[in-house]
Write a structure and sequence with these properties.
By secondary structure, the protein is α+β, with helices and mostly antiparallel strands. Helices cover about 50% and strands about 15% of the residues. The protein has helices at about 15-25, 60-65, 65-75, 110-120, 125-140, 145-165, and strands at about 30-40, 50-60, 80, 90-95, 100-105. A hairpin with a 2-residue loop joins β4 and β5 (about 100-105).
């Protein structure tokens, strides 16, 4: 059971991301295409769960094989393969206070993380609505992280669909 906590934005979050970015980049050198701070902690002013999300784009899972998992696990992250059912073609890792999402660089999920983050950085109304939703859901599902995540999905998917329509 994972507790759900939503707190006011903390200016230390980007620094926490920077402290894991370099070791992850080094571990995946040669296959790394991109590495980005995503999720709520990457949006200044957004109340969020104090978990830093890192999205990584690789040139190829096939080329990396099991070396990918081994390289990230050596940094203290735990591979969670059961979440691949939730988002196919994504490798997911956890470490206290961090979630790492690894995709091939062309995967639409990788682009979606960045689009969502970028939009919330510049759209105060959507940022405020998302913060309110997260706070309400954290109160509703205080010890059910998966249900909290699932309950946020309609907002995220709706906003991404709206962004797609405005292109």
């Amino acid at each position: 059971m994972t507790a759900v906590v939503v707190i006011p934005y903390d200016r230390a979050w980007p620094g926490r991301y920077e402290r894991v970015r370099a070791p992850l980049s080094d571990a995946l050198a040669g296959a790394l295409v991109s590495i980005e701070h995503v999720g709520g902690t990457a949006v200044p002013g957004l109340d969020s769960s104090p978990v830093v999300d890192v999205a990584i784009g690789l040139d190829s899972f096939t080329r990396c094989g099991t070396l990918l998992v081994d390289a990230i696990e050596r940094l203290g992250f735990r591979y969670v393969p059961e979440y691949e059912q939730e988002v196919p073609e994504r490798h997911y890792f956890r470490r206290d206070g961090f979630h790492v999402h690894v995709f091939e660089h062309a995967h639409p999920g990788l682009r979606a993380y960045a689009r969502f983050r970028n939009h919330l950085r510049v759209n105060e109304g959507d940022r405020r609505a998302y913060a309110e939703l997260k706070t309400q859901l954290a109160a509703r599902f205080p010890n059910e992280f998966e249900r909290y995540q699932a309950a946020k999905s309609p907002f995220v998917e709706g906003l991404l669909a709206r962004l797609d329509q405005s292109r």
